[in-house]
Write a structure and sequence with these properties.
Length: 193
C-alpha cells in the first residue's frame, strides 16, 4: 500500500483531450464547469519521444517549462507493465499496472494509491473483442472499483469525436487528481500501441 506523502489534490471530474500531432501523443487536461462545459486548463501531457521506458510528463501549460507530475514504466519491456506516478519532485503518488492475462480479451488495470487498491476494465466485453479486430473509434469506457468494497472510484468514458476526448469522473475523494489524470492518459496512450 502506498503511504500518503503529499497533500491530496482532489478533482471530481475533468476532460482529457488528445491533440493531433505527427510524432508524439499530447493531451490537455481540462476542468469540467458545473454546466458541463470546458473550464480552465489543468495540465498538458506529453509522451516522451524515443524513450527506452514509457514516460508521460504533465506540464502546467503549452510552454512545457514547468513539470507538475508524471508517470513512468518501471521496466523497459514488460507485458504486464507497471507505472509509477510521481509529483514533480519525484514523490510517489501511486501506481498502475496492466493485467496482461485478463487484457487479452478485455483490457484491465490495477490502480493503487494511499489507502486504496482498485481494479478497472473495459465496461463492455463485446465491444472490447470487436475493438481488437476492427480499427474504428468505438466507445472505450473503463470502470474502476475499490478491491475491498466494490464501490466505484474512477470512470473514463470516450466521447465520439474526431480526436480522442474522455470524460473522467472520480467519485472517490481518496484518489489524487494527479493519479487519476495519469491513469486516464495512460488508458489512451498505452492502449494505442
Amino acid at each position: 500500500m502506498i503511504e500518503p506523502t503529499l497533500q491530496l489534490q482532489y478533482v471530481p471530474q475533468f476532460f482529457v483531450k488528445q491533440r493531433i500531432t505527427m510524432m508524439v501523443n499530447r493531451y490537455e487536461i481540462v476542468e469540467v464547469n458545473p454546466d458541463g462545459s470546458e473550464g480552465r486548463l489543468f495540465a498538458v501531457a506529453q509522451q516522451k519521444r524515443m524513450a527506452m521506458r514509457e514516460q508521460v510528463t504533465f506540464f502546467s501549460d503549452d510552454s512545457r517549462s514547468v513539470p507538475l507530475f508524471g508517470f513512468r514504466a518501471r521496466q523497459a519491456i514488460d507485458l504486464a507493465a507497471s507505472y509509477d506516478v510521481t509529483s514533480a519532485d519525484g514523490t510517489l503518488l501511486g501506481s498502475f499496472q496492466k493485467d496482461f492475462a485478463n487484457s487479452l480479451l478485455r483490457s484491465s488495470f490495477h490502480l493503487r494509491g494511499p489507502g486504496f487498491e482498485a481494479y478497472g476494465q473495459e465496461r463492455n466485453a463485446a465491444l472490447a473483442l470487436v475493438r481488437r479486430f476492427i480499427d474504428l473509434p468505438l466507445p472505450l469506457h473503463f470502470d474502476f472499483t475499490d478491491r475491498a468494497t466494490g464501490t466505484p472510484v474512477l470512470t473514463s468514458e470516450r466521447q465520439f469525436s474526431l480526436r480522442d476526448r474522455y470524460t473522467v469522473s472520480v467519485p472517490d475523494q481518496r484518489i489524487d487528481f494527479r493519479l487519476a489524470a495519469s491513469m486516464a492518459v495512460g488508458l489512451d496512450a498505452l492502449m494505442q500501441r
